[in-house]
Design goal:
Layout lengths: L8 H13 L15 E5 L7 H6 L24 H8 L19 E3 L14 H4 L6 H21 L13 H4 L1 E5 L2 H9 L4 H6 L1 H17 L4 E5 L8 H6 L14 H24 L4 E5 L1 H11 L30 E4 L2 E4 L20 H11 L5 E2 L15
Parallel strand pairs: 1-2, 1-3, 3-4, 4-5
Antiparallel strand pairs: 5-8, 6-7
Helix pairs in contact: 5-9, 9-11, 12-13
GO molecular function: hydrolase activity, acting on ester bonds
Protein name: Esterase
Organism: Oryza meridionalis
Length: about 400
């Protein structure tokens, strides 16, 4: 993969030397005390990237926790927000958000609609972002370069807004991406076999990006697999032919079989990275199982697993891809908000047909934070522990 044309080799090389030297020494079983988190991904962990670039997520997004839209496609907090809280860190500012951002303890490069490989289309035509994972990695490289130059040469207030050099080797690097790579294929009417055929390419591209981050000093990686896409209303509405055969939870078997195969290949990829870089810690996190458990047990928990909270159209899913959350329709010549929130998001798993509610995200976080769904089975707070015998 070609490096970005704007990479400044001298500054980056200097930072790499610093971060490679300043490794964290942690006793076995102790909490890691990550000073920062750097996140890469799609809308499942976007804290404002797409909103800052292509127009803000409208109300009623953010209603449950923040009381207003804050760049998240959710009524409140995302899993990445709960991760930051758990580590005693502030919520991550989106790298692309130029106003009010504080990057002292990390940055978020995730952008809604992003995918591992580049999209041969535009956001306005397909809904998928041009800010693919390789672009996010270039942003990260530029972030190191520019932040350290400003930190060291301008000082002042910038030292209160930008990370210290040693944080890049001590930080936790989180990845949550892949869902859009699967759905893009299905949404242009590919078969399962055709989508499966390009999974090896996705793994190669992801490996290259993680290697790049490692080369820039990253040593602690927390990598989410993709969720049960076949349980999301938007996926089933887009390809009703794939939703004909459903499992006991009401999810599309075809979609989920591909998601599970993607996850198996991802787990194998992480295992190879572990062997290639024995001085780094790689944690594979089974988010799929956490999300599927929630959907399967939703009714027992007093939640509806499929009915969209902030949607339009009624029916089983209350989802219309032409009128999203906060979307408007014309009534008697006047545009009125039609994509309204349900009264109680706590009783829904799906926020807008694509993303989970805050309540659902909290459930998922609680499932994964302790490490029982991870390989190796280490808690989030101990994700700097190097796996022995790898």
């Amino acid at each position: 993969m070609a490096p970005p044309p704007y990479a400044a080799a001298v500054v980056v090389a200097t930072v790499v030397v610093l971060v490679l030297v300043l490794q964290v020494s942690v006793a076995a079983g102790a909490d890691c005390r990550f000073p920062a988190v750097f996140n890469f991904g799609d809308s499942n962990s976007d804290t404002g990237g797409l909103s800052a670039t292509f127009g803000a997520a409208p109300p009623p997004n953010g209603r449950t926790f923040f009381g207003m839209p804050v760049g998240r496609y959710c009524d409140g907090r995302l899993v990445i927000d709960f991760i930051a809280e758990s580590l005693g860190l502030p919520y991550l500012s989106a790298y692309l958000n130029s106003i009010g951002s504080n990057f002292t303890q990390g940055a978020n490069f995730a952008t809604a609609g992003s995918s591992i490989r580049r999209q041969n289309t535009s956001l306005f035509l397909s809904g998928f972002s041009p800010i693919s994972l390789d672009v996010q990695s270039w942003e990260f490289e530029q972030f190191i370069n520019r932040s350290q130059f400003v930190y060291n040469n301008k000082g002042g207030i910038y030292r209160e807004l930008l990370p210290k050099a040693e944080y890049f080797s001590q930080a936790l690097y989180t990845f949550d991406i892949g869902q859009n790579d699967i759905t893009t294929g299905f949404f242009i009417n590919m078969t399962s076999e055709q989508v499966i055929a390009y999974i090896p390419d996705l793994m190669e591209r992801l490996t290259n990006i993680i290697q790049n981050v490692y080369g820039l000093g990253g040593r602690y990686f927390w990598i989410h697999n993709t969720g049960p896409i076949g349980c999301l209303p938007y996926a089933m509405v887009h390809r009703p032919d794939l939703a004909v055969v459903k499992d006991g939870a009401g999810c599309s078997v075809a979609y989920n079989e591909v998601a599970q195969l993607f996850n198996q290949r991802l787990k194998e990829t992480v295992a190879r990275l572990r062997k290639t870089y024995p001085d780094a810690a790689f944690t594979y996190v089974d988010v799929y199982s956490a999300k599927y458990k929630l959907i399967s047990d939703a009714k027992k928990l007093g939640m509806d697993p499929m009915l969209t909270c902030c949607g339009y159209g009624g029916g089983r899913y209350n989802f219309d891809d032409r009128v999203g959350c906060g979307g408007k329709v014309k009534v008697n010549g006047t545009w009125v908000v039609a994509g309204k929130s349900c009264d109680d998001p706590l009783k829904r798993v799906s926020w807008d047909g694509v993303h989970f509610t805050e309540a659902a995200n909290k459930f998922v976080f609680d499932q994964i934070a302790g490490g029982k769904l991870s390989d190796p089975p280490v808690p989030l707070r101990q994700a700097c522990q190097i796996s022995r015998g790898q």
